[in-house]
Specification:
This protein has 120 residues and is an all-beta fold. The protein contains no helices and nine strands.
């Protein structure tokens, strides 16, 4: 899923471009990935933050959060941050990215992406 336009002032980042969605796990309308099956999933989040400080987190199920932040206030342009995570999810558990501070660059092709794959 990719983010190239839209309002990024909401807490949950809604990726508006969908490249592959096997199992229909990602729901464009609410910005959540819903695990179609129980298993171990790997997620990759790449965020292209706008200028200034920025912070977000990848929320995995109801228990794990992986922070992603950029602290440099002096930077005049954006910067990209990437994180990886593996988590065991039960069927119908949710995964999403929350933007808590700052902004995400809007462009096409998107520089902010989220990908996930079930490993077992």
């Amino acid at each position: 899923a990719g983010f190239s336009e839209g309002d990024n002032e909401t807490t949950v980042l809604h990726f508006n471009e969908l490249f592959l969605n096997y199992g229909d796990g990602y729901v464009l309308e609410d910005g959540h990935f819903r695990a179609p099956h129980q298993g171990v999933y790997m997620f990759i989040i790449g965020v292209e933050f706008g200028p200034g400080p920025a912070m977000g987190q990848l929320v995995l199920g109801s228990r794990d959060k992986i922070p992603i932040h950029k602290a440099n206030e002096e930077e005049s342009d954006g910067s990209a941050m990437t994180s990886f995570a593996m988590v065991e999810l039960k069927k119908d558990e949710l995964v999403w990215f929350e933007l808590m501070e700052g902004s995400v660059v809007k462009r096409s092709p998107p520089g902010t992406l989220m990908a996930g794959d079930r490993k077992s």
